[in-house]
Amino acid sequence: MTQAPVKIGIIGGGLMGREMASAFARWCALEEIGVTPVLTAVADLSEPVLAWFDRIPTVHLKTRDYRELLASSEVDVVYVALPHHLHAPVYTEVLRAGKDLFAEKPFGIDLAAAESIVSVITETGRFCRCSSEFPFLPGAQRALELARNGDLGRVLEIRSGFHHSSDLDSNKPANWKRLSHTCGEIGVMGDLGMHALHLPLRLGWKPTTVYAQLQKGVAERPNPDGTTTACDTWDNAALHTWTEARGHRAPMTLEMKRLSPGSTNSWFFEVLGTDGGVRFNTSDPKALWVFRRDKEQWWQRTDLGFGMPFKTITGGIFEPGFPDIMQQMWAAFLLERAGQLQGRFGCVTPEEALASHQLFAAALRSEASHSVERVN
Ligand SMILES: NC(=O)c1ccc[n+]([C@@H]2O[C@H](COP(=O)([O-])OP(=O)(O)OC[C@H]3O[C@@H](n4cnc5c(N)ncnc54)[C@H](O)[C@@H]3O)[C@@H](O)[C@H]2O)c1
Q1: Residue 107's domain is classified under what CATH number?
Q2: Model confidence at 2: pLDDT above 70
Q3: Residue 264: how many CB atoms within 10 A of its CB?
Q4: Separation of CA 67 and ligand 1 centre (Å)
Q5: Could you tell me whether strands 228-230 and 220-222 are parallel, antiparallel, or unpaired per DSSP bridges?
Q6: Does 178 share its domain with 272?
Q7: Other CB atoms closer than 10 Å to residue 131's CB: what's the count?
Q8: Residue 197: inside a domain, yes or no?
Q9: Same-domain pairing of 359 and 264
Q10: Of 76, 108, 130, which residue sits at a domain end?
Q11: Does residue 339 lie within any of the structural domains?
């Protein structure tokens, strides 16, 4: 199959920027795919970060000024992975420069920022999607299919979330993700909330009301020079919502935690109904748990293999991991951009990202009022 090259520029080559470069570098793993990303340009303020990209031979432009990258005719699509306060200004510049955009979550520091990004997408007509990779795992895809079409009876409860524990260590230095002015007042919801909402929103399970329990953790963290920085973001969020699922009102709990003892990076999704149910958690990444009820009640565990939405050279019995789902997410982005998704699972749309911000804004109101708030 001919593979049309798509020239990619990255703005922000930190943790995520490098992860994406690595996904492109092993694109040969994908079968029957008509598009190939070619990383041509990188912009970052840090010289050591730019130097890391010397290992990618197709990168011709490395710059501290992202506007130089936007001016380059050697860039078709821009992936932006910057601190959250820079999302709206940089995303809108990317779109107005005539480039398509793969945007990192949370898609703006707050609801107003997300609204401004969506309005510039409409104004420019550029193609834009937002990053969320965990639903590309085989277990998540199977859970999605069961949630949509499985014999579940009436949906009784939905739980979706993301837990990690990297903030339990109070000696971990402060960074932009712990400060409201760079991470957002929404804190952990901006960090992890899009991951928790991608499947519910894709299923049409939009929250209508929310009662939020938000918690802060370590108030001060050390800097390398011996001083300390006040950390003011919410670290844990439990959002108790109502939604409409398969024709009935159902409670849906969305959990985002940076302080979850024992969790490294646990993304989970579960739906329980009167007749059936499904559970998937990346802490046991090959296991799909399916509930059924006949004379007795059963939780059945299936050992999953490499059943990815986009076919690869990897044998069906093997285990997928984080780098694989990053690559799958890019396959979805590039194929949808080329009009070739053909009904397969796609990345978060701008409308879904906006819906996540509407929920987070209502959650902040709920935390302040200690009451249930309507999500609009
Ligand atoms: N999808 C995921 O699983 C996932 C995981 C982690 C982070 N993220 C998201 O990715 C984004 C970036 O997070 P990260 O963890 O990669 O952050 P990071 O701090 O590791 O990287 C950010 C990079 O941006 C650079 N930068 C800052 N200001 C800049 C500017 N004006 N011009 C150019 N470069 C600039 C920094 O030098 C740094 O290298 C955030 O939106 C975050 O929420 C997504």
Answers
A1: 3.40.50.720
A2: no
A3: 11
A4: 17
A5: antiparallel
A6: yes
A7: 25
A8: yes
A9: yes
A10: 130
A11: no
Residue 357, Ramachandran bin (φ over 0: left; ψ between -120 and 50: alpha; else beta): alpha
Pocket flag, ligand 1, residue 11 (CB < 6 Å): yes
Q: Residue-wise over 358-376: b if at least 16 C-beta within 10 A, else e?
A: bbbbbbbebbeeeeebebe
CATH number assigned to the domain comprising residue 297: 3.30.360.10
* Residue 90 belongs to domain spanning: 4-130
Residues 245 and 365 in one domain: yes
Residue after which a domain boundary falls, among 67, 97, 130: 130
Same-domain check for residues 146 and 29: no
Asked if residue 144 and residue 54 are part of one domain, the reply reads: no
What's the whole-number mean pLDDT along residues 225-234?
90
C-alpha dihedral sign at 72, 75, 78, 82: negative
**What's the structural domain count of the chain?**
2
Query: Which has the closest alpha carbon to 198: 164, 162, 166?
Result: 162
Rounded Cα gap, residues 347 and 172, in angstroms: 32
Q: Indicate whether 114 belongs to any domain.
A: yes
| pTM higher than 0.85 | yes
Answer yes or no: do 152 and 125 share one domain. Answer: no
pLDDT tens by residue, 250-259? 999 999 999 9
120 and 195 co-located in one domain: no
| Ligand 1 centroid from CA 177, angstroms | 10
Measured in Å, residue 108 CA sits from the centre of ligand 1 at 13
Q: Indicate if ligand 1 lies below 6 Å from the C-beta of 103.
A: no
- Does residue 14 line the site of ligand 1, with CB under 6 A? yes
pLDDT per position as a tens digit, 260-309: 999 999 999 999 999 999 999 999 999 999 999 999 999 999 999 999 99
Cα–chain-centroid distance for residue 44? 22
Span from the CA of 82 to the centroid of ligand 1 (angstroms): 4
- Give the residue ranges of DSSP H helices in the chain: 15-25, 47-52, 66-70, 87-96, 111-124, 138-149, 180-183, 188-202, 322-337, 350-369
For ligand 1, say whether the CB of 104 is within 6 Å of any of its atoms: yes
- Closest atom of ligand 1 relative to the 90 alpha carbon: 31
| Residue 322 within a domain | no
Which atom of ligand 1 is closest in space to residue 84's alpha carbon? 41
pLDDT tens digit sequence for 33-84: 999 999 999 999 999 999 999 999 999 999 999 999 999 999 999 999 999 9
Q: Which two tokens stand for residue 87?
A: 């999302």
Judge if 26 and 53 occupy the same domain.
Answer: yes
